Amino acid sequence: MKIKKGDNVLVISGKDKGKSGKVLEVYPKDERVLVEGVNIVSRHTKPKSAQDKGGIIKKPSPLHVSNVMIFENGKVTKVAHKIIDGKKIRISKVSGESLDKEFVKAVRKDAKANKEQKPSKETKKDVKVEKTSASKETKVKKVVEKKPVTTVRKTVGKSGK
């Protein structure tokens, strides 16, 4: 099922059309969801003992999954699935962001860890400059000392005089 516990949903059909709420429970075998404050039914109960009171109790009843859509940032959205790092992730078609809260937390945690680590800077030993006086050309060569070098710049300047 594309809807999970904790999602915010909007009812798109039925007697409670237009109402929104949080999913309290999901029943995948019956393809139904229990939404907070939606589809309230009255249950007439009989007193079971002398101390219990009978009466009319109001409680939420499950809705079919086809009658609700995920509600995000004031808009309803469809759900797409992508496989990222070997995990199947639910993604909003409207915003393109992940709907899975666990995945979002893990990504933020990884981003913090990567921010704390600073990349190493190149040392002066890595760059060797050669100048030739006859043609006034300057060439920059990178000398690799057990470090991978990513960029090589060559500057050539010729004088017209």
Textual characterization of the structure:
By secondary structure, the protein is mainly beta. Among the domains are: 1-45 and 56-77, SH3 type barrels (Roll); 124-155, no CATH class. Helix content is 10%, strand content 40%. It has 1 helix and 13 strands. It has one helix at residues 101-116; strands at 8-11, 20-27, 32-35, 40-45, 55-60, 63-64, 68-72, 75-77, 79-84, 87-92, 127-132, 137-142, 154-155. Strands 6-3-2-1-7-8 form a 6-stranded antiparallel beta sheet, with no helix packed on it. Strands 11-12-13 form a 3-stranded antiparallel beta sheet, with no helix packed on it. A hairpin with a 4-residue loop joins strand 2 (20-27) and strand 3 (32-35). The radius of gyration is 32 Å and the shape is elongated. Residues 122-127 have low confidence and may be disordered.
Short recap of the structure:
With 161 residues, this protein is mostly beta strands. The chain is 10% helix and 40% strand.
The DSSP helix count reads 1
By helix and strand content, what is the structural category?
mainly beta
Shape: elongated
Q: What is the overall pLDDT average? A: 78
Could you give the distance between the termini?
76 Å
> How large is the radius of gyration?
32 Å
User: Largest sheet, if any?
Assistant: 6 strands, antiparallel
CATH architecture of the domain at 1-45 and 56-77: Roll
Approximately what portion of the residues adopt beta-strand conformation? 35-45%
CATH fold type of the domain at 1-45 and 56-77: SH3 type barrels
Percent helix among the residues?
under 10%
CATH classification, class level of the domain at 1-45 and 56-77:
Mainly Beta
Task: Give, in spatial order, the strands making up the sheet with the most strands.
Answer: 6-3-2-1-7-8
